[in-house]
Every structure is written in C-alpha cells, then in structure tokens.
C-alpha cells in the first residue's frame, strides 16, 4: 500500500454503505481506502476484503454480548483526564520543526495548490 | 406567493486562552507563520495532547451564561478528514456529549418585542491552521502555503435551532452572542481577526407551511454586515429559483464580502464521511461540582441582568434598556455617559439617537466613536442645566465628532454657543424683531386667541434666528407673548 498524496478535500467516491455482518464488498474496501488516502492494488483489495470480512465475524460475536445497563466506555483506562494550566510552555522552534518539510517558503509549509 | 425564511446559525467562537487547547503553544494573534505551532499542533508522531483547564472553564462560563446544562463527563472525538491545514488528519472535537447542552438567548426586535432563540448545544473543539493561496515572495508557482499558528486554538461551536426568520433577527442574535462572550471575557470579539465566525443555514418555505424547505449553508462569515447581506442574498436566490421552477440543492456556499458574490462550494452528494471515534489519546474530562460552583460564583453581570438594572435603577423603558444592554461596548458607553451627564434618560436618547445615527453614517462601531462617553456625558450635562438647547447641542455634538474641541464646555466656550438666559438680552432681541416686522405685529394683535397660538411661531423663529439659536426657547416664548399683548 502506498499513501495517496492527492490533496483533494472531497472523496471522489460516495461514502461507504453501512457495513453488515454479511461481509464487506470490494467496493466498500476501495471507498474506505480512498477516505484514508491509501491507494491499493486489485490484489490488495481482494486480500483486504477477505481479512476485513473475517474481522467482522469477530465483531458480530462481540455484538451478541448482552450489555444492558453497562455504560459505554470511551477509554479502556479507568481514569479521568488531568488538566493543564493555561501557561505558555512552548517556544518558537520553527526551523527545527520544518526540517522535514519537502517544500517551504517565508516560514510556510508549501503544498500542491488547494482551492476551497 | 408569500415566502418565509428559516435561519439557523453555527458560530465558531475562539476562546481567549493564552495557549492552545491541547498544547502549551501561544495563541497570540499576528505572529510570524508557524512560530506558534509546536509538535502537538503539527501532529508529529509520539505526541500526547493535554487538555487546557482554562478552555474547559471558559466553555462552562458560556454554558452558565446561556442558562444551559453543563455536561459533567466530556468525551473528545476524532473527526477524520484530509486537508493540508489539518496536519493530524483529524480534528479533535465533541460529538455525542457536548460540554454545553440546550440553552437559549432572547433578542430584541425593532417593534419592541423580544424573541427567543433556542441553542441546541455548544461543543469544544480545536481550530485548524490557515491555507494561503496568494502569491509568495517568489511569485505564483501553483503552491499553497500553510500556517499552523492557529491549529489547536480552542473554539466553542455554538449551534442554534432554526428559530430566526430574517437576516435582521440573525444579526441581532449574532450581536447578542458577541455581547455575551465578550462580557464573560471568554473571547476577544475581534471579528476581523476571525475570533467569531458564522455559518448560516438558510431555507425558505411558503408562509404558513410547517415543513422546512431544503437548506443551504453559507460558511465563514466574519462581520455582521456581511452576514446580513449574505442571508438576504441567499433568501432572494432561493425564492427566485423556486419561482422559476428549480429545486434548491442542499449545498455549502461561500460568500465573498468584498465582491458581494456567493457561490456553491460543494453539494451534499459528495459530503464527507468523517468516521468519528473517541480520541484514544484523551481520557474523559470530568467536571466536578466544586469547579462548577467556583465559576458560578465568579460570573460577571450578564446583559439580561444589566438590562434589568437599567430599567429599575436608571428608569429606562424596556426597549431602550434592551438596545443599550445588548452589546457590552454600548452598555459600557451608555453607563459612562449617563454617569458623566447626570441624566440617564437624556444620555440614552443621545446614545440611541444622534450618536447611533452618526456612527452608522460613518460605518463605525461604538468603540471607535470620536466622541467619548465622557464627552457625550458632558454635553448631556449642559443640556440638563440649560446651558444649551437641544438644537445647539447637535451643533456641539458635531463639533466634538469633528474633533473641534475635547469637551462640550470647550466647544460651547470657543464657539460662543452658551444659551442666552438673560431676560434683558432676550428682550432687546425681541424688541428689535418686533420693530422690524410691524405688519405681522399688527396682524397678530388683530387675531383671535386660536390664530395667535399659530402666529407666535413666526416671532419665535425670527427671535431664535436673530440670537443664532442661543436664546432659551422657553423664555423667548414667554417674553414674546407678554410683549405682543
């Protein structure tokens, strides 16, 4: 798999249909891959479809568990978020942070033209 | 056919924290590009966001300000989409359990009534960076520039119910919201810097029809004026389209305030699938009762409480009190002017009358008024103690506006506008007027009482003119009637 570097905001394909336990279609795999900006070959589509269908089976088993009266869990850690005081702790580190950028100018990251 | 517009708003309010919502990078406006974007804001591998306590406090303040429920357990979600100014590939936001639940705000309408706009909820989220499409120093090379200083700035997104029926109501709501967030000190209110950005949802339906029409969303309006124009334009466009037999397409639109042109940006069919899921990097934020109570005890006077005080303590009418309390800047200005002038009602008339009119003509907001509240108060004081008449006061106001003096007293002195209240001086002017108009005096004396009442106006006018407006009108009236007997 390679990362699809196209910058388009909108997926050209419609959003995937609701996935059900009957398995996943190749079309759904392609549209999910597009949403994640991954370009995958025909071969990979077939393999991924099989793997995801197997995973869906596992999810079906989990769905069968009775969860009446159980609060949904947003995080597996049984803890609450620590808060941070509103104080500036970061200093300008632009030069270093931009060293990996493939293109830059006037302190800006440059990307292929986007028009919204 | 009569059409009715239905308007709902989504407003992004930038919170006035010193640092980002999930990092310790500064949020100060106007810094060099990317100098306030740290590893967390850039979404580099291995980073861990930590929630800014002040962002939570400010969101709570807003909730209390609009009498909404505050959600005790807050979950942050990832909203996934690709755009160059969103380096992480997702925006951290809230979905199912927004920090602020349902609330409401009342707005004043022109006819003196108030109208309630329900607020569906307000949630906390991070802002994205900025894409710049203008040419850079090396000229146009088909690239866009990305500045991530704004990335991670805390926002609350306020979502209203579709409770507004025209652009004026929407603007009244927007102004009131502006007043509330600035009163609370949770937003600097600088619209031109993008501190408040409005998305407007507009649909139209035949008057009396229950079912809503198809709506469009016009995004990112950052001034009240543009908002009003964009809404009116969109209502007009939809009505014309329907009357011409077209269907309204659900779409996102962009309005350019400089050119007054709106265009379609994307339609619903190609809408994104954001694949929300709880952010695994952030634990639930639990709001303790002690935090809630502390914030509640520190709440400033809200516009509604101020309105009540204007009515009860300063003796203003309901409509005047609403208009003057609606915006923080106007309310502060009015109170200062009333205090300096020693007459709240007179000060209210001047703030809502001559001042508002002149500000409007010059396209200025009250904070940039060339006439300070103290100067206007000084003017009010001179009307109140009869130093000048209401008519002369307008002249003094104009002089203050044009910076021909720093106080009403200075202008009155410099221009010799002090009202003449010396009986002898006024009598001398009247004698002169009567001597110059013997025919009119003759007619007056021959007339009956009913006609005399009307005819005296001529002499009053002549006398005021001869005194260059400075004679006290009440005294002129009295003395004239006596002399004409």
Number of strands of chain A: 5
Which structural class should the secondary elements of chain A be placed in? alpha+beta
What share of residues are in beta strands of chain B?
A: 15-25%
Radius of gyration of chain A: 21 Å
Which strand-content bin applies to the residues of chain A? Answer: 5-15%
Q: Strand arrangement, largest sheet of chain A? A: 1-2
Question: Helical region count of chain B?
Answer: 16
State the separation between the terminal residues of chain B, measured CA to CA: 64 Å
List the uncertain runs of chain B: none
- Total number of beta strands of chain B: 16
User: Approximately how much helix is present in the residues of chain A?
Assistant: 25-40%
Q: Which segments of chain A are poorly predicted (pLDDT under 50) over 5 or more consecutive residues?
A: 4-16
Series of secondary-structure elements of chain A, N-terminal to C-terminal: EHEHEHEE
Q: State the strand order across the main sheet of chain B.
A: 6-7-10-1-11-12-13-14
Query: Which protein chains make the most extensive interface, counting residues with beta carbons within 8 Å of the other chain's beta carbons?
Result: A-B, 44 and 59 residues
Q: Estimate the helix proportion of chain B, in percent.
A: 40-55%
How is the biggest beta sheet of chain B arranged?
8 strands, mixed
């Amino acid at each position: 798999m390679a990362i699809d570097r196209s910058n388009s905001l909108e997926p050209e394909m419609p959003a995937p249909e609701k996935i059900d336990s009957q398995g996943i279609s190749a079309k759904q795999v392609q549209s999910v891959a597009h949403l994640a900006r991954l370009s995958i070959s025909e071969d990979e589509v077939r393999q991924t479809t099989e793997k995801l269908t197997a995973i869906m089976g596992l999810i079906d088993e989990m769905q069968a568990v009775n969860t009446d009266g159980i609060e949904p869990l947003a995080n597996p850690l049984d803890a609450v978020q620590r808060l941070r005081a509103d104080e500036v702790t970061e200093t300008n580190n632009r030069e270093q942070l931009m060293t990996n950028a493939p293109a830059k100018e006037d302190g800006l990251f440059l990307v292929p033209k986007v028009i919204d | 056919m009569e059409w009715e517009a239905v308007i709902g708003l989504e407003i992004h309010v930038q919170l006035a924290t010193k640092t980002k919502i999930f990092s310790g990078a500064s949020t100060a406006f106007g810094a060099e590009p990317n100098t306030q974007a740290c590893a967390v804001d850039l979404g580099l591998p291995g980073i861990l966001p930590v929630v800014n306590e002040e962002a939570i406090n400010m969101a709570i303040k807003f909730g209390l300000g609009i009498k909404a429920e505050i959600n005790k357990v807050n979950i942050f979600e990832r909203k996934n989409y690709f755009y160059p100014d969103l380096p992480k590939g997702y925006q951290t936001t809230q979905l199912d359990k927004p920090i602020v639940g349902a609330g409401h705000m009342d707005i004043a309408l022109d006819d003196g009534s108030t109208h309630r706009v329900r607020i569906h909820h307000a949630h906390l989220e991070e802002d994205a960076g900025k894409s710049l499409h203008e040419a850079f120093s090396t000229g146009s090379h088909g690239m866009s520039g990305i500045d991530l200083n704004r990335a991670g700035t805390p926002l609350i997104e306020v979502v209203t119910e579709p409770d507004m029926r025209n652009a004026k109501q929407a603007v009244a709501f927007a102004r009131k919201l502006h007043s509330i967030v600035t009163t609370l000190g949770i937003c600097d209110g600088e619209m031109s810097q993008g501190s408040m950005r409005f998305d407007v949802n507009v649909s139209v339906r035949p008057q009396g029809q229950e079912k809503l029409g198809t709506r469009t969303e016009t995004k990112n309006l950052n001034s009240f004026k543009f908002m009003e124009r964009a809404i009116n334009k969109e209502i007009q466009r939809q009505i014309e389209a329907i009357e011409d037999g077209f269907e309204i397409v659900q779409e996102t639109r962009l309005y350019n305030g400089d050119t007054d042109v709106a265009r379609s940006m994307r339609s619903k069919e190609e809408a994104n699938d954001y694949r929300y899921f709880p952010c695994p990097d952030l634990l639930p934020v639990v709001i303790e009762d002690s935090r809630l109570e502390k914030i509640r005890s520190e709440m400033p006077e809200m516009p509604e409480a101020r309105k009540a005080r204007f009515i009860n303590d300063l003796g203003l009418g309901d409509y005047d009190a609403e208009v003057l309390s609606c915006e923080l800047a106007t309310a502060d200005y009015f109170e200062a002017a009333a205090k300096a002038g020693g007459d709240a009602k007179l000060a209210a008339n001047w703030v809502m009358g001559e001042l508002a009119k002149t500000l409007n003509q010059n396209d200025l907001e009250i904070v940039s008024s060339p006439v300070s509240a103290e100067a206007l108060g000084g003017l009010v004081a001179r009307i109140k103690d009869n130093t000048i008449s209401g008519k002369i006061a307008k002249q003094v106001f104009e002089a203050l506006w044009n910076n021909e003096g720093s106080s009403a007293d200075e202008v009155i002195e410099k221009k010799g506008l002090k009202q003449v209240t010396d009986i002898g001086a006024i009598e001398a002017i009247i004698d002169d007027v009567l001597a110059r108009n013997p025919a009119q005096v003759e007619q007056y004396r021959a007339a009956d009482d009913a006609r005399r009442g009307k005819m005296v106006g001529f002499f009053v006018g002549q006398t005021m003119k001869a005194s260059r407006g400075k004679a006290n009108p009440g005294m002129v009236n009295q003395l004239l009637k006596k002399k004409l007997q």
